[in-house]
Amino acid sequence: MTFGGLTALSGVSLSLEQGSIAAVIGPNGAGKTTLFNCIFGLYRPTSGQVSFKGQSLIGQKPHRIAKLGLGRTFQNIELFAKMTTMDNLLLGRHLHMKCGVLSGSTFFRRGSKAAAEETAHRRKVEEIVDFLDLQSARNRYVGGLPYGIQKKVELGRALCMEPELLLLDEPVAGMNLEEKQDLMIWLKDIQEVLGVTLLIIEHDMRLVMEVSQQVLVLNYGQPIACGTPDEVQNHPEVLKAYLGEQDGQAVAHA
Ligand SMILES: Nc1ncnc2c1ncn2[C@@H]1O[C@H](COP(=O)(O)OP(=O)(O)O)[C@@H](O)[C@H]1O
Ligand SMILES: [Mg+2]
Question: Which CA distances in Å does 99 have to 115, 121, 159, 166?
Answer without folding.
Answer: 9, 11, 21, 25
